[in-house]
């Protein structure tokens, strides 16, 4: 086809001349259509009209190339929806009707938080077809742009969300072909929703428009779309580039008063540089926009994923990788940049090499880090379980790196919601770097922004990045974060660590969320919370029967119930052991499960060799896990290896310095070394922040007992019973002390608990230790025998606890040691 203006040859299918942009055989179109989809007027429905017997029209909310959109009430499901109708005059057009059906099918197949949700497609009484869609409170991007220039952070966020949604569509073979601000809704909570897939072309299916027919919105059309040529996903990349340019500058990149002049600008002119309009743009952003607006599709981003990656690099404060070539446009020092920049780069490289030879760089590596509690940006307190889970997961991934000391959960959670300067936190935790982050979760998408900070001697940002993933990919995302952070800290990973970090996999989103809820409740260790934790772990298994962590969670519930004295060992041990064994069958690399099995083998089975082996395997798999180190310190003391024990507990405290439980373990290790004054000092410090900690209080009363400081010991006993809410024990303690002093007080409490044991579970160990301290040897040995028969998990401590020193030579006591294989 010859152009009537410039006489250039064009394909017969072209609508515009590829040389001068003249319309081929059509009249010019006024400017008011340049940002509107080409459309035919449609007849509006009146308010209150009932459609298909269940949708009542509320109001008209918009018009597009494929019809009118109404706000309507679904009177059956009692929800607000958006109804989109094919114009009445198109009802008899099979091509338009087919296109409308394809819109619904295309959009309904896209399950993504940034794409409008389709409920159904139907037909009204007058044969007009409609789509029922989700109705979103918010405003269109067109409205936001009209209100004024967007901040670059907001523009970037909108672009990333839109590109992420379009990437999902492109993966399904769907090209939108009408991306523009009017087709993007920004909901009230800041989520971008892409609307109107009415012009989508389903890859591989029959074309719904004649060759050469141009559909879309003129101002946002790609050059190939404007010429009526075949299009692919790169046309959406162009259109999104136009939208991003408009958000950042407030104007369109290509100008023209009529369709022809605008198309000529799209085909032949370059936009005005963004830097001339605003100076606050981050480095590299302008290059991204201009790469997206490359005339030739081969010079653009080849996929939305590439565009998202460059946009997220800018968000993280980094230079985009793929858009760097855009610096080669124009001239520099009289030379074309394509020639000038390589020469400058060569000179720069020579200068850098010379500098490094003269001044060798000393690498700055970090060997310690704390992941501070990630901040909840969802606005929903009910999501705290997920946010805390994000903190736990990132800690867990980093903790697998042996050359890095990673502060554990309990200590970092002390800083949740506290506004304490980073350097102060770093000094308290004795770390050189910290990670801060925020979580924003919408539907099945999770967006996490993390920041690595050099904390001492003063705060300095090293790196930050925003990750946006589907819920199924969260573990993969945490693994990527950990590996990137390690690289920024110049920490070298061992081959096995690389393998473990790379071995993470997708999760079943429903199972994962149930698991996180279970963990959230388990940490509280109350009876109701442990019950809730078990229910959530079982729900996780119902959603994913092969979920190893859920079995590990069930094992931890039964161990927690046993430790808190809620159930006897004979009930808890078999269930904990079975769940842990199943977890290891599914995933033998779970350090926490090896720790659980170690606890069962040590404190229930009294298998000292097996317990030690499992503790060491847990430490090998996760060298930053403090629990196995704290527990093995007690085992090593029981086995008369105190030097090794002290090394392990001190490392546990380096990893979790604010953990009251581990400070209590440390105090007990000091007790076994007969360092009673040190015990008292450690416990007093612990009680300042954890005044009701049961291990701290029980260890303190033992230290006072061993130092014959009986008045102080009585006060510690009172505090421990008050913390547990055991009024009967408190009353017995006071009555006994009044009757006969310290020994009588403990005797009365022992008798009270012995009477209670006839109808409720009371650990025999507790009663035996009370009689021991009261100096009643026979009664003490009777109850210790009962504790032995019940396989009470505290029984191994008879090997090392100094409260038994007065009865250690008794034949019955020595027989207990012999039967437990603890004679040394």
Q: In words, what does this structure look like?
A:
The protein has 824 residues and is α+β, with helices and mostly antiparallel strands. Among the domains are: 145-191 and 210-328, Transferase(Phosphotransferase), domain 1 (Orthogonal Bundle), CATH 1.10.510; 368-496, Rossmann fold (3-Layer(aba) Sandwich); 726-824. Helix content is 49%, strand content 12%. Strands 1-2-3-4-6-5 form a 6-stranded antiparallel β-sheet, with helices on one face. Strands 14, 15, 16, 17, 18 and 19 form a 6-stranded mixed β-sheet that branches. Strands 7-9-10 form a 3-stranded antiparallel β-sheet. α15 packs parallel to α17, α18 (569-586) runs antiparallel to α19 (591-603) and α19 runs parallel beside α21. The radius of gyration is 35 Å and the shape is elongated. The relative contact order is 0.05.
């Amino acid at each position: 086809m010859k152009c009537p203006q410039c006489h250039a040859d064009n394909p017969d299918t072209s609508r515009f001349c590829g040389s001068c942009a003249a319309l081929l055989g059509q009249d010019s179109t006024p400017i008011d259509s340049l940002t509107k989809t080409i459309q035919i007027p449609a007849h509006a429905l009146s308010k209150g009209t009932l459609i298909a017997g269940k949708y009542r029209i509320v109001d008209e909310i918009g018009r597009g190339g494929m019809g009118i959109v109404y706000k309507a009430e679904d009177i059956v499901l009692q929800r607000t929806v958006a109804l989109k109708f094919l114009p009445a005059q198109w009802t008899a057009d099979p091509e338009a009707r087919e296109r409308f059906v394809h819109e619904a099918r295309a959009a309904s197949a896209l399950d993504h938080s940034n794409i409008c949700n389709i409920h159904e497609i139907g037909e009204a009484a007058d044969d007009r077809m409609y789509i029922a869609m989700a109705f979103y409170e918010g405003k269109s991007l067109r409205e936001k742009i009209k209100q004024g220039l967007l901040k670059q952070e907001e523009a970037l966020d909108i672009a990333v969300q839109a590109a992420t949604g379009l990437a999902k569509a492109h993966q399904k073979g769907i090209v939108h072909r009408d991306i523009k601000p009017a087709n993007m809704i920004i909901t009230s909570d800041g989520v971008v929703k892409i609307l109107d897939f009415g012009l989508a072309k389903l890859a591989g299916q029959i074309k719904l428009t004649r060759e050469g027919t141009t559909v879309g919105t003129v101002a946002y059309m790609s050059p190939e779309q404007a010429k009526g040529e075949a299009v692919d996903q790169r046309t959406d990349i162009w259109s999104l580039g136009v939208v991003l340019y408009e958000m950042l500058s407030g104007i369109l990149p290509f100008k023209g008063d009529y369709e022809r002049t605008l198309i000529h600008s799209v085909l032949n002119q370059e936009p005005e540089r963004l830097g001339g309009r605003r100076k606050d743009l981050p480095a590299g952003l302008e290059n991204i926009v201009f790469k997206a607006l490359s005339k030739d599709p081969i010079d653009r981003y080849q996929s939305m994923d590439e565009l998202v990656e460059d946009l997220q690099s800018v968000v993280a404060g980094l230079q985009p990788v793929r858009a760097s070539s855009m610096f080669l446009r124009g001239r520099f020092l009289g030379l074309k940049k394509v020639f000038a920049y390589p020469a400058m780069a060569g000179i720069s490289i020579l200068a850098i090499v010379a500098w490094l030879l003269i001044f060798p760089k000393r690498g700055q590596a970090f060997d310690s880090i704390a992941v501070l509690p990630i901040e909840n940006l969802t606005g929903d307190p009910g999501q705290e379980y997920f946010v805390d889970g994000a903190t736990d997961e990132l800690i867990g991934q980093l903790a697998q790196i042996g050359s890095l000391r990673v502060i554990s959960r309990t200590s970092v959670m002390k800083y949740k919601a506290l506004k304490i300067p980073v350097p102060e936190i770093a000094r308290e935790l004795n770390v050189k770097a910290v990670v801060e982050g925020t979580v924003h979760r919408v539907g099945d998408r999770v967006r996490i922004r993390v920041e690595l900070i050099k904390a001492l001697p003063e705060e300095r940002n090293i790196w930050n990045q925003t990750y946006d993933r589907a819920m199924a990919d969260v573990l993969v995302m945490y693994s990527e974060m950990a590996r990137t952070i390690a690289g920024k800290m110049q920490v070298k990973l061992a081959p096995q660590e690389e393998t473990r970090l790379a071995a993470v996999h997708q999760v079943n989103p429903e199972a994962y969320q149930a698991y996180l809820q279970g963990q959230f409740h388990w940490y509280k260790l109350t009876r109701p919370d442990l019950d809730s934790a078990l229910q959530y772990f079982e729900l996780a298994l119902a959603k994913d029967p092969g979920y190893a962590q859920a079995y590990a969670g069930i094992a931890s519930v039964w161990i927690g119930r046993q430790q808190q004295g809620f159930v006897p060992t004979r009930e808890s041990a078999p269930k904990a052991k079975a769940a842990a064994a199943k977890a290891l069958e599914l995933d033998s690399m779970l350090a926490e499960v090896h720790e659980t099995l170690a606890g069962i083998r040590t404190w229930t089975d009294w298998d000292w060799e097996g317990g030690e082996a499992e503790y060491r395997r847990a430490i090998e798999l996760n060298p930053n896990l403090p629990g196995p180190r704290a527990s093995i310190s007690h085992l090593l003391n029981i086995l008369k290896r105190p030097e090794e024990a002290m090394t392990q507990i001190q490392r546990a405290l380096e990893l979790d310095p604010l953990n009251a439980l581990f400070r209590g373990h440390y105090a007990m290790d000091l007790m076994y070394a007969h360092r009673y004054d040190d015990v008292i000092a450690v416990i007093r410090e612990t009680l300042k922040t954890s005044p009701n900690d049961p291990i701290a209080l029980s260890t303190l009363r033992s230290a006072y007992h061993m130092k014959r400081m009986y008045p102080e010991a009585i006060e510690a006993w009172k505090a421990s019973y008050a913390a547990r809410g055991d009024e009967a024990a408190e009353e017995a303690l006071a009555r006994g002390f009044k009757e006969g002093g310290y020994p009588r007080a403990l005797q009365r409490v022992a008798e009270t608990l012995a009477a209670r044991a006839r109808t409720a579970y009371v650990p025999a160990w507790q009663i035996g230790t009370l009689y021991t301290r009261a100096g009643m040897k026979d009664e003490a040995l009777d109850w210790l025998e009962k504790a032995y028969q019940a396989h009470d998990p505290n029984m191994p401590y008879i090997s090392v606890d100094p409260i038994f020193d007065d009865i250690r030579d008794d034949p019955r006591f020595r027989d207990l040691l012999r039967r437990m294989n603890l004679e040394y």
